Automatic annotation (TrEMBL):
InterPro entries found in the cross-reference section: MBF2
Keywords: Signal
Coiled coil: none
Biological source species: Anopheles maculatus
Protein name: Salivary secreted peptide
One Pfam match: MBF2
Length: 120
């Protein structure tokens, strides 16, 4: 009986450790609907720095470009393993013709994001 209890606790601990390390930080704002087109796609890669947090802003539309009505913003964390960064919309966004997305790393880690903006 004691062995079974220890075994169950061990499996639970290992399972929770796996789930904690297997998570990604993907973000999905809005929703794609038929006739939406990909209006901007940006890949952001930054290497890690020891005990530092890095951040970067992704803006749409690019300078000199006319913005289209944004219907969805997808931010894919391609680093994985729970080491990826975080994304927040700091300006504009869904229903607007402009946006600013703030990307931030975890302390001591890098970032590898793919940002897709869909609109009409």
């Amino acid at each position: 009986m004691k062995f079974a209890t220890v075994f169950v606790v061990l499996v639970a601990v290992l399972g929770s450790c796996y789930l904690a390390t297997a998570q990604t930080h993907n973000y999905f704002f809005g929703a794609r609907v038929p006739y939406d087109t990909l209006v901007n796609q940006t890949t952001v890669i930054q290497s890690s720095s020891f005990l530092r947090v890095k951040s970067l802003n992704v803006d749409y539309p690019l300078k000199g470009q006319r913005g289209r009505n944004i219907t969805a913003i997808y931010v894919y964390d391609r680093l994985g393993g729970g080491r990826g960064g975080f994304a927040t919309i700091t300006n504009g966004g869904i229903g607007q013709n402009y946006t600013r997305i703030h990307l931030k790393t975890q302390r001591g880690n890098g970032m590898n994001f793919q940002v897709e903006i869909y609109g009409r």
